Here is the input.
Amino acid sequence: MARRSSENTRLVYSSEVGRVSEPQRTHASGPPTDGIVRVSRTSSGRKGKTVTLITGVPHADSGELVRELKRLCGSGGAVKDGVVEIQGDHRAKVVAHLDGRYRVKLAGG
Here is the structure.
C-alpha cells in the first residue's frame, strides 16, 4: 500500500475540537487585465446568432457601459462573467464609442 504524502491530506475532523473548517481562500475579483478593452464577434454556442463581446472593461463600469451600448446599437445585451455582450455585429460602433475612454483593440476575425 502506498503512503499518502502530507500535501494530499488535510484534517477534516478532530476529536478534540470537532469538525475543522477549511481555511478561507481569497479570490481575485476577476481575471487580470492589461488595460486594453478588446472587442470581438462570435456566434459559437448561440445557435448561429452573432454577438459582439467586449472584454477587459473594469467591473465597476460594466453595468453603465452595457446600458449605453444597448441604446447606441439599438439591440439587447447583458453582462455575463465580466464580459459585456451586445446582440448583433456592432464592432465598428462599439470601437468608435469606446475609443476616447479606453485603449480599444479589435480582437478575432
